[in-house]
Amino acid sequence: MNITISSFLAAIWTTIIDPAKVARQIMARRYTRGTLWTGLALVSIVSVILLRLLYFVAPVAMPMGFTPNLYGLVMASVLVILTFALYLTGQVFGGKATFPHSFAIIIWLEAVALVIRAVQAIVYLISPVMASYVSIFGIVALLWILLNFVKQVHRFESFGRAVLTIVVAIGGIGFGFGFFMTLIGISAGVGL
Asked: Which of 73, 109, 112, 131 lies 20 to 30 A from 45 at CA?
């Protein structure tokens, strides 16, 4: 399969304007474990590279003081946890997703997010104010894509179940993360 930059960007644009169609295209394929883990590694590595490049545009510290390698590992872990949460929560609400397809849509969603962040960085060089508008557009676009992806991958008939799946999955992740941080002795009051 021959992928060019223009075909990649065309696929990103199609994802933004017709996410349901792209989700169906993703679901029409079969994915091996190796392909999915390679995709996860690729988006995580590109995310770290993009973050390092952004440092030259607007020098900021790594999130939470992470090293680049740790940031990449955390990014990959978050994507895996999000995949499991959306997959399992969707199953509870009657969804029919397979785990490989759930994983594939999350990896592709992150690829789209990377392109949006890159565009935001380029726009920031021209106008920081315009970059904030790109950021808002990006958040709305990514939520719309995620909503459509969850609806399609679980074969839900309505957006209601997709919204419920996302809200419960993300709420569960937040609760689990808070519980884990409490277990290891980190609380919101540390350092105050």
From this structure: 131
Locate 184 and state its tokens. Answer: 């290891």
Buried b (16+ CB within 10 A) or exposed e, 143-170: eebbbbbbbbbbebeeeebbebbbebbe
Residue 24, helix vs strand vs coil: helix
Consecutive H or E run containing 165: helix 159-183
Choose among 97, 80, 52: nearest CA to 173.
80
Interior angle at CA 48, CA 89 and CA 24, nearest 5: 40
Which of 4-8, 66-70, 73-77, 93-97 is predicted with the least confidence, judged by mean pLDDT?
Answer: 66-70
The pLDDT tens digits for 118-137 are 998 889 889 989 989 999 99
